[in-house]
């Protein structure tokens, strides 16, 4: 029988191609991702089926377009509607194939506080609580968990715990959904922020877009938020 590979998926939220050193950004420091790109595969012609969080995630897990799975825009996490109830996800397929499956971090396809079908382990957010720093509201296997501090280390810790489970010899599939790259661009660790003081970010697109209130907003201006 052919051995099955372990699978670790890391999805950084709202993280564009231009925000990576391996794709040519000269000021952003992404050494680990650059190393993965250098030693693995770097996609140059890939695209998302929808440039919005929830539908893009649903498409990743189902392999279907938004017009097929029915999620067309980002979801309000307090909505109790089970948007993925009729879908077969990657996690379900792998679980049925003998994989030990887990999720840590952001799901955002509806009912994030509930362990979804196909996942043996679930460490998600409680109803859309995504602060980069401060009071953290997680749900682990259906139980509320409260922590305080930077968010991402808690996700990493739980992910490492899952990967290090030697009591189960099945191959693993772990989806790790981080949100630190999503706005607001504040409350990040000083050891990271200090590297960018005085940066002009010439490789970040300056694209204007019209807000719902009718005003014009320019995304990516480093002076917008600290």
Give a verbal description of the structure.
By secondary structure, the chain is α/β, with parallel strands linked by helices. Helix content is 21%, strand content 21%. The protein has helices at 31-39, 53-62, 66-69, 90-96, 151-163, 190-193, and strands spanning 7-12, 100-105, 121-125, 133-140, 143-150, 172-178, 207-210, 216-219. Mean pLDDT is 89; it is low at 216-226.
Helix/strand order: EHHHHEEEEHEHEE
The largest sheet is: 6 strands, mixed
Helical content class = 10-25%
- Poorly predicted tracts of residues: 216-226
* Number of E strands: 8
Our count of helices gives 6
End-to-end Cα distance, whole Å, is: 54 Å
Lateral arrangement of strands in the main beta sheet:
1-6-2-3-4-5
Strand content: 15-25%
Taking Cα atoms only, what radius of gyration do you get, to the nearest Å?
A: 18 Å
Query: What overall form do the CA principal axes indicate?
Result: globular
Helices and strands: which structural class? alpha/beta
Average pLDDT rating: 89
């Amino acid at each position: 029988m052919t051995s099955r590979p372990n699978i670790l998926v890391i999805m950084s939220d709202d993280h564009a191609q231009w925000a990576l050193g391996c794709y040519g950004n000269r000021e952003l420091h992404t050494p680990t991702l650059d190393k993965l790109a250098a030693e693995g595969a770097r996609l140059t012609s890939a695209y998302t089926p929808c440039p919005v969080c929830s539908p893009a995630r649903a498409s990743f897990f189902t392999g279907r377009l938004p017009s097929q799975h029915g999620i067309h825009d980002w979801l309000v996490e307090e909505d109790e509607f089970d948007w993925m109830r009729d879908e077969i996800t990657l996690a379900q397929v792998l679980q049925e194939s003998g994989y030990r499956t887990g999720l840590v971090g952001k799901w955002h396809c509806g009912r994030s506080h509930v362990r979804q079908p196909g996942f043996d382990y679930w460490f998600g957010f409680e109803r859309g609580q995504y602060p980069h720093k401060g009071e953290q509201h997680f749900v682990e296997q259906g139980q509320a968990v409260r922590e305080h501090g930077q968010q991402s280390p808690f996700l990493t810790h739980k992910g490492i715990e899952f990967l290090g489970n030697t009591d189960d010899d099945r191959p693993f599939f772990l989806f790790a959904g981080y949100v630190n790259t999503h706005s607001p661009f504040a409350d990040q660790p000083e050891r990271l922020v200090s590297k960018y003081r005085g940066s002009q970010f010439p490789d970040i697109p300056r694209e204007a877009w019209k807000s719902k209130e009718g005003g014009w907003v320019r995304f990516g201006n480093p002076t917008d938020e600290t």
